[in-house]
Design brief:
mainly alpha, Arc Repressor Mutant, subunit A, 2 domains, Tetracycline Repressor, domain 2
Length: 203
């Protein structure tokens, strides 16, 4: 019984750290989020923080991992509703842009990291590399099915096309520039989807 209570306390502390840290990262960004401020708000000693997380980076990566897990669960549900390759590609791009609105942590960290230092460091982790490999294989499977059905171009490069489609989401950071020209976010995304589909659909 005592062991269970200790475990519950540890779990509660760890979750409290993650909840407060997520708020700080979203509000202040990576550089201005300070572990001292997080532990003070949680009400624990700084040493206690390091019982759960080795560094600020590890904490951030876990928070981003949470977001990505929630996103992928929703992605798979929505993709299952699409019956064509074009519909699935459209859904992937639209959902990727929507994710930056639904998860302000991702938007803020990306905006504060124009050189993608944090993203690159996170992508070096074996678990993330495995997720990327699976995502690439999934996109290749989608494109192959579209080619087999006659919907997509037969000459698509199955190494490059999945990567290009996957990286389109980072154009999210340029929607503000489009809005300066009187183009709404939706118009920008629709135009991007139109260009992407015209690049892969069979004529």
């Amino acid at each position: 019984m005592a062991t269970n209570l200790i475990d519950e306390k540890k779990q509660a502390q760890r979750q409290a750290i993650m909840t407060v840290a997520r708020e700080h990262f979203e509000r202040f960004g990576y550089k201005r989020t300070v572990i001292d401020d997080v532990v003070r708000e949680v009400g624990i000693a700084k040493g206690t923080f390091y019982l759960y997380f080795k560094s600020k980076d590890q904490l951030l990566f876990e928070l981003i991992g949470q977001c990505r897990h929630e996103m992928m669960t929703e992605f798979h549900k929505l993709l299952a509703q699409e019956t064509t390759a074009a519909g699935q590609i459209r859904a992937i791009i639209e959902m990727s842009f929507q994710a930056f609105l639904d998860y302000p942590l991702l938007a803020r960290i990306g905006a504060d990291d124009p050189g993608f230092r944090i993203v690159t460091k996170m992508m070096e982790q074996p678990s993330v590399q495995e997720e990327m490999r699976q995502a690439m294989e999934g996109m290749q499977t989608l494109l192959k099915a579209g080619i087999a059905s006659g919907e997509l171009r037969e000459d698509l490069d199955l190494e490059i096309a999945p990567l290009v489609i996957g990286l389109l989401k980072f154009l999210h950071y340029y929607t503000g520039l489009a809005e300066l020209h009187g183009v709404t976010r939706k118009q920008f995304v629709d135009g991007l989807v139109d260009l992407a589909l015209n690049g892969v659909l069979r004529r």
